Amino acid sequence: MKTTAVKDGDEYVLNGAKMWITNGTVDGVETGDAYLVEASVYARTGKGSRDVSLFLVEKGMKGFSLGQKIEDKCGMRASMTAELVFQDCRVPASNLVGEEGKATLCMMRNLEIERVALAAMSLGIARRCVEEMNRYAKERHAFGAQLNSFGQIQRFLAESFAEYQAGRSYVYQVARNLKLDSVGNGLDADGVKLYCGQMGKNVADRAIQVMGGYGYVGEYNVERLWRDAKLLEIGGGTNEAHHKNIVRDLSRQVGAAGSSVAWQLI
Ligand SMILES: Cc1cc2nc3c(=O)[nH]c(=O)nc-3n(C[C@H](O)[C@H](O)[C@H](O)COP(=O)(O)OP(=O)(O)OC[C@H]3O[C@@H](n4cnc5c(N)ncnc54)[C@H](O)[C@@H]3O)c2cc1C
């Protein structure tokens, strides 16, 4: 958010850096072809604006380069993460997307959509983990009995199934109500990602436990799914950010339009 843009004739000059950018590079050498980059537009006088503008920055533009490449990620290793650097990067004014200073709404709306999508990712992880541990617990015998006959294993499986189903309902409910052309879905976008992010990781964790040694190694994929699931408690907003946002939004509703339970109506 500290990246700045200064208008210079029919160009904008961008300075700053964006860290942790998913697909910041695809081959570890070059940037991707095009990015939508947010920057605060500053007047030449140095007087700044807090309003954010959106620019289309393309590969090869002067001053645009790849910074650090993030190595050794815990999970999500199929996508590369990198830093993008803008050093006196000159962008044609025609690459301003929308109106100057009007990108905050786009940014917030995109964040809402992203959070629902990330919740859906957690859901997929949980579903696969339930399937894997269910199959394994049925096939594996230990101490002369099917694994799924042990109460502790039943608890892992049953709770995972019920939590997955609860997450599924929440994801579909929020996705159905999502207004793609406006903001205003923040409370549930935060809520669904908070719930599903933790649910997906917990279910993956249980799957590893149910599968014992095989859970901990790659053969059944659940250890990879756990590593992928962990990111969903961090990327797109941390759990802590969701806690704060949810409480802020809930608190705004107290007394609003004579009701403190507007959230029940959606
Ligand atoms: C693999 C990966 C891909 C990513 N992709 C993108 C991307 O494409 N685009 C993008 O913009 N970002 C991306 N991110 C960045 C991601 O959104 C941030 O890492 C995340 O928001 C946390 O910010 P931070 O790393 O600066 O942690 P910090 O802000 O340093 O936070 C560290 C810890 O402190 C907690 N914390 C911080 N402030 C508070 C507070 N006020 N109250 C309570 N707790 C607090 C956080 O919740 C966290 O647990 C990616 C990150 C990763 C790891």
Automatic annotation (TrEMBL):
Pfam families referenced in this protein's UniProt entry, alphabetically: Acyl-CoA_dh_1 (PF00441), Acyl-CoA_dh_M (PF02770)
Alphabetized PROSITE patterns for the sequence: ACYL_COA_DH_2
Required cofactor names: FAD
Keyword entries, A-Z: FAD, Flavoprotein, Oxidoreductase
Entry annotated with the keyword Transferase: no
Limits of the Acyl-CoA dehydrogenase/oxidase C-terminal domain: 107-249
The organism's place on the tree of life at top rank: Eukaryota
Domain Acyl-CoA oxidase/dehydrogenase middle: 2-89
Cross-referenced Gene3D superfamilies: Butyryl-CoA Dehydrogenase, subunit A, domain 2, Butyryl-CoA Dehydrogenase, subunit A, domain 3
Family: Belongs to the acyl-CoA dehydrogenase family.
Name this protein carries in UniProt: Mitochondrial (IVD)
